[in-house]
Amino acid sequence: MKKVKLAIVGVGNCASSLVQGLEFYKTASADTAGLMHADVGGYTLDSVEIVAAFDIDVRKVGKPLEDALFAPPNNTTVFQRELPSSGVTVSMGPVLDGCAEHMADFPENQAFRVADTDPVDVTAVLKSTGAEVLVCYLPVGSENAARFYAQCCLDAKVAMVNCLPVFIASHPEWAEKFRSAGVPIVGDDIKSQVGATIVHRALARLIGDRGTRLDNTYQLNTGGNTDFLNMKMEDRLRTKRISKTESVQSQLDSPLDPNNIHIGPSDYVSWQKDNKVAFIRLEWRGWGDVPMNIEARLSVEDSPNSAGVAIDGIRLAKLALDRGLGGPIEAASAYLMKHPPRQMRDSEARQLIGEFIDG
Questions:
Q1: pLDDT tens per residue across span 130-185
Q2: Which residues contact 272 (CB under 8 A, 6 or more apart)?
Q3: Is 34 exposed, middle or buried (0-12, 13-18, 19+ CB in 10 A)?
C-alpha cells in the first residue's frame, strides 16, 4: 500500500480530530459522511502513517501521541476514543511566539502550560523519521514559529500543509523558496468543510450572481477552544482578519470598502468548548434599489470540521511530492485554504483538484 508519512505540529483539537478520524473510518460503512475524496491519487485514509509529532505543552510533550491527543486543554468532541499505539512520542518543539502571554491568566484546563524541556532538532527528527508531509496546526499569531517549521520543511524536503493564517504559500518570497527547493506547500489558513468562511463566500457570490449589489456584511464568531482563547490578544489577529476578509472579498465582482465589511473572531466563551458559533449578515439592494438582507447563524464543532479538509490537503501535498512539484499547489490551496496564492471560485477550484488528482 502507498504510504503518506505524516508529521504533526501542534497536538491540539485539530490534530485530535484528524487522528480520531483516521481510525474511525477504518470500520465505517461506505456511505458514512465526512469525506470529500475517499481516494487521492491512490492514497486512502489507510495510507496515512503518523511518524512524528511536536508540541510545547507539559501534558503532551514526552507522552505517546494517542494519549496526548486527549490531554488538556484539548476539548473537542471525542468520536473515536480507542486509538491504536502509534509508536510516536510527542517531541518538544521551539516555543518562539507559539504561546501567548495571557494564557497564564486562565485555568490549566483551558490554556497552554509550557514544558520545561529543551526543544529537539526538528529538521533532524523529520529526516530520521522519514516524514514526507508536515501539517502545521500552530496557534493563530505564531508568525515566527510557523516560519521556523516552514524552513525545517525546506531543509528536510518535507511537503507542508499550512493550516494557520501565517502567509507562507501566499507570500511571494516564501513561495519561491518552496519552488526553488522542489518542495510543495498547500496553504494558507484552512477552511472548514462547511464553516463560516465557505458559507459566507457562497452567500456573497450568490448575491452577485443574481444581479443584486452587496452593500454591507459582517461575520462574528465565538468559541471556547484554545484557538479562541489565543485570539483574545488583538495583536495576534492581524493576519487572521486579513485572511478571512480577503476570502470573502475575492468572491465579489467589486470588493467592498473596508468600512462596509467586518469579518473575524469576536470573543472567547469557555463553556462552548470546541463549538464555534458564527453570526453572518449580508445587506444588499435588488430590483428598484430596494434594500434586503440575510442573517444566518451557524453552529459547528470546529476541529472535526477542519479535519475533513486537512486530510485532503495532506494527501494532495504527498501527490505533488511524488510528481516532483515544488512551490504552492494552486488548486489545492484555493479550494482548501482561505488565503491561497491565487483566489478562485470554489466550483472552479474543486474541478481543478479533480483534474490534478487525475494527473
A1: 999 999 999 999 999 999 999 999 999 999 999 999 999 999 999 999 999 999 99
A2: 222, 223, 224, 225, 228
A3: middle
Task: Provide the CATH number for the domain around residue 252.
Answer: 3.30.360.10
Determine the angle formed by the axes of helices 238-249 and 196-209, rounding to 10 degrees: 30
**In the structure, how many helices (H) and strands (E) does the chain have?**
11, 11
Looking at the structure, do residues 182 and 251 belong to the same domain, yes or no? no
Residue 39 belongs to domain spanning: 4-191+304-358
- State the Cα–Cα distance between residues 279 and 270, nearest whole angstrom: 18
Q: How far apart, in whole angstroms, are the C-alpha atoms of residue 65 and residue 74? A: 13
Quote the CA–CA distance of 288 and 94 in Å, as a whole number: 59
Contacts (Cβ under 8 Å, ≥6 apart) of 347 = none
Is 200 found in the same domain as 186?
Answer: no
Asked if 354 and 228 sit in the same domain, the reply is: no
Pairing between β-strand 133-136 and β-strand 213-223 as defined by DSSP bridges:
unpaired
CATH number, domain containing residue 187: 3.40.50.720
Burial, 157: exposed, middle or buried (Cβ in 10 Å; 0-12, 13-18, 19+)? middle
Q: Which residues contact 181 (CB under 8 A, 6 or more apart)?
A: 154, 157, 326
Which stretch of 48-57, 136-145, 189-198, 232-241 has the lowest confidence by average pLDDT? 232-241
What is the Cα–Cα distance from 77 to 299, expressed in whole angstroms? 14
- Number of structural domains found in the chain: 2
Beta strand ranges found along the chain (DSSP E) = 4-9, 48-55, 91-92, 133-136, 159-162, 184-186, 213-223, 261-268, 275-285, 291-301, 327-328
Q: 343 with 247: CB under 8 angstroms? A: yes
Report how far Cα 178 is from the mean position of its chain's Cα atoms: 19
Q: What is the pLDDT of residues 70-82, one digit of tens each?
A: 999 999 999 999 9
**CA 242, 228, 344 angle in degrees (round to 5)?**
35
SS3 167: coil
State the CB neighbour count (10 A cutoff) for residue 41. Answer: 18
Cis peptide before 139 (omega within 30 of 0): no
Q: Is the pTM of this model over 0.90?
A: yes
